[in-house]
Amino acid sequence: MSTSADTTAPPLSPLPHDTEGLKQSIRDAMVRFVGKDPKQATQRDWLDATSFAVRERMIERRLLTRRQFDAEDVKRVYYLSMEYLIGRMLEANLRNTGILDETREALAQLGQDYDEIVAWEDDAALGNGGLGRLAACILESLATQGYPGFGYGIRYEYGMFRQQFEPYRQVEHPDNWLRYGNPWEFPRAERKYPIRFYGEVVEHHRNDGSVHYSWEDGEQILAMAYDYPTAGYGRRNVNNLRLWGAKATRDFDLRYFNEGDYIRAVADKSQSESISMVLYPNDATAIGKELRLKQEYFFVAASLHDILDRHTELGYTLDDLPHQVAIQLNDTHPAIAVAELMRLLMDRHGLHWARAWELCRQVFAYTNHTLMPEALETWPVDLMTRVLPRHMQIIYRINHEFLEMVRRRFPGDEERLKRLSLIDEEGGRNVRMAHLAVVGSHQINGVAALHTELLKQTLFADFYQLWPERFVNVTNGVTPRLWMIQANPELTEFLGEKIGHDWQYDLERLRALEPWVADPELQQKFQQVKRKNKERLATLVRERTGIRIRTDVLFDVQIKRIHEYKRQLLKLLHVIELYNRIRDGENVPPRVVIFGGKAAPGYQRAKDIIQVINEVADVINHDPQVGDRLKCVFIPNYEVSAATVIIPAADLSEQISTAGFEASGTGNMKLALNGALTVGTLDGANIEIRDAVGEDNIFIFGMTESEVVAHRARGEVPEAMLAGRPALSRTVEMIEQGYFTCDDNATHAELGHYLRHQDPFFVLADYPAYREACERADALYAQPECWNTAALTNIARMGYFSIDRTVRDYAEKIWDATPEPVAPKRNGG
Ligand code: H53
């Protein structure tokens, strides 16, 4: 199917992609868009002018992509996510558009240093951690592989907070990333949808006896579209990420203006615009705040309205929906989409229940990212009834029909009905959003093999029994474009010299490296690359913390959100033990331990952990007896742009969560791809990484998931683990006695007490195995040939963890979507 607009669209005159043409565009942009004479321009002005020059070239391809999709009857994939952790955009866009070298040269000819210019850009940090970064990787891969895939999310005015230590404890500062405007976004004033909250449902009885419902009154807020073009690497496809910003409706303002209350009108305006004001800084925990529910509904309602409008504008009917549209729900956050699509199909388009439900189920699929109960959203029925009354009605009806079906299959099994119900009746009545997502989707996936198995056996066991065919696994992946080509240019060049560049599109081709992993010359080059990357990281560490680190020792890295289950404390206990051994005169192999990560602002335990790590680090780093044999650094404000410097420099990758708690992990993949060896538990994707790289090339330790379950069942006091372990006991005593603090004994004492008496994630139980694994790592590091062979083998065998494989898995197992590469233009460009 094609629209008439395609044939009448004027051809675009292609912009030049060579150095001279780019230089001209940058200079022009400086005058026309930035409004400055190049002589007066600051580095930020050059950043903006360069961004405008790139975006011109991207939007040209965006329009071509769109025209082709419109003309070709393609199935579109829509990715609904509350989070996109994108990072800096200029370098990524230059690289994917294929004009990075030319732009670097153009800037040089204009007297500007490319590296200094790109560093002025703020990270687009519209996400917390793994889930948000995965969403960004998926969008990049959709474009790179030519899939018609589009992201929808929220244009938060304040992204992830900036973290500072004052002096040891985390303090949050707002991330006002849009304060200087944003050259990458296209505001679409014409794409505005009114979004309703509160109000009431009115019943209309028709002559034929049928009942029709409408949702009326309440408050309306406008969702306005802001488009961010997303370029594919080595292809002309440019897709779109549409983020919604909240705007007050004009009617709403007028009410107060007419009453003469100017101040109230303006205040109310900013009140309604607060919906898209700030990202909730909680990773894998639900907070149950009304504003959060409103954020979720706001972006879901706008996105579905937009999707249906596009569908009908293209001339399709509602019956065509399952053939033309796939909608992926990224975690439970957008699960209200199931009820909203039902509402639109019935109340707006007049479909009857059964047909609407059939279409819904064919369109939606749901990705679960966690088993942790505190991360699974539930909303009090009262709140839902007040904020979204029509949706609450629809959810009741979905639940009714669903439970009727269960009753027929399992007569008399009341317990099963309670477990499956969309409404949790215990401790107040709450809507289980994960259940809504499962019931409303044709496919449900976990994000690593173990995680999917656990979903089937535990969290969704009853659903799995009903519909085993709906559950599939899609193991996460990472984009090699950001995490190798951009983050590690030296390693990229080194690989290019040895095995060519095909791996950039097909990461499995890294296997071609395997015959050479033990080659001394290659190893020497690899070591040189690592060393250079360590120097780059040492500079970042010095700039951010003032600490000087040497670059000829093992770099031991744990970078991720701070969470009890991720067990930063396990690493800390090891650091303290190393410190004691050095002070006892033992000859301990030197190392630099690097931490990075943010804690949710209200998560006191995580903030305590940060504080204590910083205090321990301060003591160690200033102890003359230790010197540079051990350094411990907590890099403040860990973010995507910092990750691109830290990851290529790592030797050892800490993936030490309590087995059964990390759904997948993706940092584990980025680090191994860059030649770090993993010390890890059999959790999440670590298991698949071990299977890929081989047992000899990874340091696995600790309780397995079923051993954790059995250990918990035994109910031993954690303190019992200290018996017969003098070194560990000494470490715990030092913490609880405040050895590392001058003024906050209470926090240290509390943390010591927590380890002895609570230790919910079994840090003490796993410690002996962990220390032993670290010693295995030290022993291997002492034999550089063996270490380098293992590191290079890791790189060679990481192909499976490309996000391109992940996206193909989704396309084949879930979306039934095919790539639609944009044909090269006849006149090049
Ligand atoms: O999602 C990552 C996983 C990781 C998991 C993470 C995640 C969030 O970042 C936020 C919410 C949530 O439910 C899960 O913790 O294991 O790798 C991407 O799948």
UniProtKB/TrEMBL annotation:
GO cellular component labels: cytoplasm
GO BP field: glycogen catabolic process
Residues annotated with N6-(pyridoxal phosphate)lysine modification: 670
Transmembrane segments: none
Region (Disordered): 1-20
Record carries keyword Transferase: yes
E.C. number: 2.4.1.1
Root EC class: transferase
Cofactors, names only: pyridoxal 5'-phosphate
Keywords (A to Z) from UniProt: Allosteric enzyme, Carbohydrate metabolism, Glycosyltransferase, Pyridoxal phosphate, Transferase
Record's protein name: Alpha-1,4 glucan phosphorylase
